[in-house]
Design goal:
The complex is a heterodimer. Chain A is an all-alpha fold. Chain A has six helices and no strands. Chain A has one domain. The mean pLDDT of chain A is about 90. Chain B has two domains: about 80 residues, RNA polymerase sigma factor, region 2, helix turn helix motif (Rna Polymerase Sigma Factor, Chain: A, Orthogonal Bundle), CATH 1.10.1740.10; about 100 residues, Winged helix-like DNA-binding domain superfamily/Winged helix DNA-binding domain (Arc Repressor Mutant, subunit A). Chain B starts with a helix and ends in an 8-residue tail after the last helix. The chains are: A mainly alpha, B mainly alpha. At the A-B interface, helix 2, helix 4, helix 5 and helix 6 of A face helix 1, helix 2, helix 3, helix 5 and helix 8 of B.
């Protein structure tokens, strides 16, 4: 089955390179063909949050970002989630209204007092 | 520090930080009685190690750090009982976001997120959205994600603790991040009360 043509750039596509003229169209097609597709790129971006990306893949990623602001945004948002999620434990009291049972609180205070004695 | 001082400090920790520690433990382990036990263990460990607390971090950060270790120990103990062989949540449910050749569908790509992370951390509604989105993740995927991103456990150690392969870990983290990103966008960043405010 022949590969479907790359979805044309919509009006207002904010990527650095979009199919705005003949040269950009050629470049977009070339980069699209020689870098991972977005579906694969988002998987690679996730893995790069946990282990370093090989040099060649870093270059491919940079090239891919030229034609795809969505993957670039996706990476920024993975970092956003990473940056905020690590603060979640210290803000857990703001995240819900579940009360800390008063009897558990008292029991813990008693245990602590026993240990300190 | 005298025994009296430690006693007073410990009682104050429970009043000031107990709620936060309990709610975090509950998000992680889901069972109230287990969460209570973990919080108790964390406070007992804090009293033992109080001399080592040099005030380099805030009291809450220090206590949360101790609780995180207790939670990881809890999962370590459970590790052998937890089967990750029947991996759930591995079907590609976000395939509608991409056109058949694998590029983003331009109508469905990620939206811009505002405000910046350092601003959003001060908004309780954001943490509520984060908790709700976490609760929608399947249990095993959530465990892996929270251990990696919230408890900051290295990937290799997570694989050992949960007896899973590197490959399974990458897939689960990828699915978790994708689902969480999507959920936060829908329930926070695209809402007037959230980033669009």
């Amino acid at each position: 089955m022949p590969e479907e043509p790359y979805s044309p750039s919509p009006i207002g596509n904010p990527s650095v390179l979009a199919r705005r003229n003949r040269w950009q169209t050629m470049l977009v097609k070339f980069i699209g063909k020689h870098t991972p597709k977005c579906r694969e790129m988002v998987r690679i971006l996730s893995q790069s949050m946990d282990e370093p990306m090989p040099l060649m893949m870093r270059i491919k990623k940079r090239l891919h970002f030229l034609i795809c602001c969505w993957c670039q945004r996706y990476e920024e948002q993975l970092r956003y989630i990473h940056e905020t999620a690590r603060h979640f434990p210290e803000h857990a009291d703001e995240a819900s209204n579940v009360p800390f049972p008063p009897d558990a609180k008292e029991r813990i205070k008693e245990k602590l007092a026993e240990q300190i004695r | 520090m005298s025994t009296f001082d430690v006693h007073a400090a410990a009682a104050r920790w429970v009043d000031d930080h107990g709620e936060c520690l309990y709610r975090y433990a509950l998000v992680r382990v889901r069972k109230p009685e287990v969460a209570e036990d973990l919080v108790q263990e964390a406070f007992l460990a804090a009293v033992k190690g109080y001399e080592k607390f040099g005030g380099r971090s805030s009291e809450r950060s220090w206590l949360v750090g101790i609780l995180k270790n207790k939670i990881v120990d809890h999962f370590r103990k459970l590790g052998r009982e937890t089967s990750f062989t029947d991996l759930e949540f591995l079907s590609d449910e976000f395939s509608e976001k991409f056109v058949p050749v694998g590029f983003w569908d331009h109508e469905k790509g990620p939206h811009e997120w505002k405000p910046a992370p350092d601003e959003v951390v001060h908004r309780a509604e954001f943490w509520q959205a984060m908790r709700e989105c976490l609760s929608k993740l399947p249990q095993k995927v959530r465990d892996v994600f929270t251990m990696r991103e919230m408890d900051d456990v290295p990937s290799k150690e997570i694989c050992t603790i949960l007896s899973i392969t590197d490959g399974n870990l990458w897939v689960m983290l990828h699915r978790a991040r994708m689902a969480l990103r999507e959920c936060l966008e829908m329930n926070w960043f695209d809402k007037p009360a959230g980033g669009r405010a």
